[in-house]
Amino acid sequence: MPYSILFWRSFTHWIGGIGIIVLVVIILPSLRISGYQLFSLESSLKEKIHPKTQSVAFRIMFIYLGLTLAEIILLWMGDMTLFDSVCHSFGTIATGGFSTKNNGLQFYSSYSQYVVMIFMFLAGTSMLIYYYIAKFNFKKVMQNEELWFYIAVAVVSGAIATIILLHTSNRSFEEAFREGYFQIISILTCTGFASADYLFWPSAGLLLIFMMMFAGGSTGSTSGGIKMARHLIVIKNIRSVFKRLNHPNAIASVKLNGKVVSESTNITIVSFVILYLFLFIVGTAIVTVTGVDPVTSASSVATCMAGIGPGLGNVGPMSNFASMPEISKIVLSFLMIIGRLEIITVLALFSRSFWKL
User: Fold this and answer.
1) How many CA atoms lie less than 13 Å away from 324 in the CB half-sphere?
2) CA–CA distances in Å: residue 311 to residues 55, 99, 184, 187, 272
3) 110-123 and 53-76 helices cross at what angle (nearest 10)?
4) Contact between residue 217 and residue 125 where contact means Cβ atoms under 8 Å apart
5) CB 201 within 8 Å of CB 165
6) Which spans in 169-227 are helix H?
7) What distance in Å separates the CA atoms of residue 186 and residue 350, rounded to the nearest whole number?
8) What are the phi and psi torsion angles at 140 (to 5°)?
9) Digit-coded pLDDT (tens) for 88-142
10) At what angle do helices 53-76 and 127-134 cross, to 10 degrees?
11) What is the enclosing helix (H) or strand (E) of 103?
């Protein structure tokens, strides 16, 4: 493809990344939509976001620009041209995953792969964390449970992938470490870059990749998926259920970052996760009926809902969706839209109460 097209598609998802950040961090919490009223639990956020929305938006935009510029410089210092550095930085910070090469990051050196890996992880971190760092409010950073949960999931999953590759191949530790962590972070943050064809991984590795498609990065980042905060709330709810079983008279409230999550917010988040999984099952069934094999169907639905890109089977990291039936492409396109714009937000448009004056 000509440079103009390659740049344009990279630039569009970079712009979309800014749009998602503004939507998630500023607009949705104000409207108390979906699970993003979690941000309103932060009293400091109430004081700073709502009265000074414009100034906060500009600060977050500068952080976004700063991360992009930093990655461009670091990639340019390696084996990438300036053009490739810009396009890959756009794809990383926006967690879009478009590359200028057909074989993605496989084309570039291990240095470039490490740089992209690090910035994918940073892009999957909530922009509010960078906002607090810029304000020297390190207490808020340390108290953010979602951040530590996100780090733990990435570290543990990457370590498992590394161990699997070490014990099932003749890769060196560095190769297994780089390949394992790169693919895990790419799928976890919903970026979709690939430094290797993970379809050649053993079954345990493919299962791990598939599970990561449902993870998602931090709330308030450009990543898609269910998001870490929602997973954390669901885990806390499960723990609360077991606590009540052992102590029926105990008051087991769900807390996040030291703040009690309201019953309405809790129900909304649990409902979102259930609805997400329900749509995944329905979407997989529809795509399978069109003649696609179950593995390709399930992974294509999961990757489209999370906005990742590559899946398993015929839609692996070195393949594409060209061979999918037309009906499947329509279904997957719809799932990409509702997955990116938050399921409950989109489905609310089709409710009678939304249009009722």
Assistant:
1) 28
2) 39, 16, 13, 9, 23
3) 170
4) yes
5) yes
6) 173-188, 203-212
7) 33
8) -65, -35
9) 999 999 888 888 888 888 889 999 999 999 999 999 998 888 888 888 888 888 9
10) 100
11) none
